[in-house]
Structure formats: C-alpha cells, structure tokens
Design a protein that fits this description.
By secondary structure, the chain is an alpha/beta fold. The chain has a single domain, classed as 3-Layer(aba) Sandwich (Rossmann fold), CATH 3.40.50.620. Helix content is 28%, strand content 28%. It has six helices and 13 strands. The strands form three sheets. A nine-stranded mixed sheet has the order 11-10-9-12-8-1-6-7-13, with helices on both faces. A two-stranded antiparallel ribbon has the order 2-5. Strands 3-4 form a two-stranded antiparallel ribbon. A hairpin with a 2-residue loop joins strand 10 and strand 11. The longest helix is centred in the first third of the chain and has 17 residues. The N and C termini lie far apart (46 Å).
C-alpha cells in the first residue's frame, strides 16, 4: 500500500503574531516553524502505525512550500516517512495548494491520502475535500479512528452529538484529527536516517489561485481583570449582569 501524507509548515503556537506591509503579510521574523500538529500527530503517525502492521507499506510526504520548509520535512522523515516531495511554491490559496497535491497524488498512484483536519494558522479545513474532488475520490473528514482490511477502510468520524462509522474502498482521502493516533517523538536513529532519505523538489503545475489575502487583523486586546472583594457580593452580581459577556 502507498500512502501520501500531506504536511504543512505552521508557526509554533507560542509565536508572537504580527503583520507587515499595511497588514497584508505575516511577519515571519523570529518565528519558530513546526509541522502542523494535525498533520504530524494524527495523519502521519497513523500512517506509520499502518506501516508497522504491514511493513510493505510505503509512506510519502508532500508539502507545497518554499525551501525554508525543508527542516520540518526532515523532521517528518525522521518520524517515519520514506521519502518526501516538496512542490516549490509559496501560496496561501487552498485551491492552488490542493491542485498541487492532487497532481503529486496522480503521479504517484497512491492508495490512501491523509491530511490533517486543518492547519493551526488558517484553520481552513478545505484542503482534504478539494484534493478528493480533484482526484474524483471518496472523502471522509474529521476521522478519529481508521482501520483497514483488504481493500476496504473503516473510518470513525465525529458528527454533531456523536460518532459515525463509514466504510469506503481504497483509494480514499481522509482528514484526521485528535483520536486518530498519539504524538511521537523522533528517535536518534530516525533523525540520522532522515538525512539520507529522498527529498524531491518539483516545480508547480500552472494553476490560477482563486483567493488572495486582502488583509489581516489581530483580535481586540483583552480587557483588564476586575477583582471583587469576596465580601462584596452585590458588586459581583452587578458586574455579572451589566458588564460580563457570554463566552
């Protein structure tokens, strides 16, 4: 079985967020970059678990990014990917990115495409569905469990108020979230081996983006905390009625 795992580069959750060029570009100065957690912890690790069950499984990684993404690709290889493909493009348009991934998938003839349910920077949740549509494949989103037998996958996914179990034949596209697998840390053998694993760079296919960033805006600053004396119940009640906002 061949699995294609989509990974992306995102700012560390502790990074200070700022914008430049009249709030039209993200300021990357001093930002620590990581593998998007939904891609790393859930989709990649679940693919690795499948390979541990069936050693003949091959795991390829794909990302659409410039050369500064190579360090996070090497980390993904250290975790357990066999080889990686970086499409040499820098875009935030979901359709453009999905089109590049779909082209890689067409060339590779994969049985399974895993994505994270979303990236933690843009939270778009759109890549998986677009890739499936471009490949004309079944798509199951928000997967929390994934099992495979012969050529059929059984996928548990979250729905409003409960869970749903779906079955689909391979090839298939699945977006993964918490519950699919447990986070792993690359060991020294994996780190050393990742240095020699193939990281192929290919140029993007011609695709017109459908969206462009008009501007970014930081959320409003949080209001200061008001401390109320434990004996002053009336003031606490007044503040809750007049000033507190529902969360």
């Amino acid at each position: 079985m061949k699995i294609l795992v989509c990974i992306s580069k995102t700012p560390d959750t502790t990074a200070k967020i700022a914008f430049t060029d009249n709030n039209t570009k993200f300021d990357a100065n001093g930002v620590q970059w990581i593998i998007n957690p939904y891609d790393e912890w859930y989709s990649l690790v679940r693919a690795i678990e499948l390979k541990e069950t069936d050693p003949s499984t091959v795991i390829h990684l794909v990302t659409v990014a410039a050369a500064d993404a190579d360090p996070i690709i090497r980390k993904a290889l250290a975790l357990g990917g066999d080889e990686a493909i970086r499409v040499n493009a820098d875009s935030h348009d979901s359709f453009y990115i999905a089109s590049q991934i779909a082209e890689v998938a067409k060339q590779g003839g994969y049985d399974l495409v895993f994505t994270g349910k979303e990236t933690i920077d843009y939270n778009g949740s759109s890549i998986g569905g677009m890739v499936a549509e471009l490949l004309d494949l079944p798509y199951i989103s928000l997967a929390t469990k994934f099992e495979i037998s012969a050529n059929k996958a059984t996928v548990t996914r979250e729905i409003e108020g409960g869970e749903e179990v779906a079955e689909a034949n391979l090839p298939l596209v699945v977006s993964c979230q918490k519950g699919m697998a447990e986070q792993r840390i690359p060991n020294m053998k994996g780190i050393m081996g990742a240095r020699t694993k193939p990281l192929k760079v290919q140029e993007p296919v011609a695709v017109d983006p459908l969206t462009a960033v008009a501007g970014f805006e930081l959320p409003p600053a949080k209001a200061g905390v008001k401390l109320v004396d434990a004996e002053n119940v009336d003031e606490l009640v007044r503040l809750l009625h007049e000033e507190a906002k529902a969360i």
